């Protein structure tokens, strides 16, 4: 089975890459279950997908709460009969040197970017095992591949997730589970909006993103490519960045 008819849950589907992914997969015939905290935005995306003839549902999800991930995956199974793919996309970033001691920001990144993915894995794996198949897709980052100053903790969270998926892959050679880590470079989204407190630095970062970043639909298509493979083919790591990114 390729994308058509697959039941896919997407975390962080209220904006940016997650929203674009939900729209793209729905346009290709997947049933999509969207999770995030801003439910007004989720409802709007669901309504627009349905207007275009797609099938979608929204679930209020804070990925730092394991019960919310259970509710998200359970909605897929209860309403649509199964869960084929979990796209663990929800994430946040904070930019700044470690010497700034943004301890609250570090904790928030670990909570959302690392624990949020682990809660998703814990909710989805038993369903995948019961069904005999499933696919975990996570949105990590080129920040984890090319380490640069000011993104230490963010890069660390993304590399932690990459590590979980590689271990899971090696533990799952019975063919039940496929794992994919997508590493985007700069993408024009709202990610930067809460990344830094200083308005001047934030504006500079936003401008940089606007000048260099690619459209989130490009990442959505990459995720679609990974999901579209036949069951015996796994796209493990996929990097997608602006052609001009260094
Ligand atoms: P956005 O800020 O547009 O999207 C982030 C999404 O995560 C939102 O839908 C937000 O929804 C959700 N989110 C944040 N915190 C939580 C939470 N506690 N519970 C549930 N959902 C949450 O940015 P992007 O689309 O860029 O980010 C998506 C992913 O892509 C992130 O993991 C990011 O690290 C990664 N990425 C982005 C890059 C870029 O250049 N933009 C580059 C590389 C990776 P809500 O606030 O409604 O809960």
From TrEMBL:
Keywords: Oxidoreductase. It comes from the Bacteria. It holds the Pfam family adh_short. InterPro entries: KR_dom, NAD(P)-bd_dom_sf, Sc_DH/Rdtase_CS, SDR_fam. Residues 6-189 form the Ketoreductase domain. Gene3D superfamilies: NAD(P)-binding Rossmann-like Domain (3.40.50.720). Belongs to the short-chain dehydrogenases/reductases (SDR) family. This is SDR family oxidoreductase.
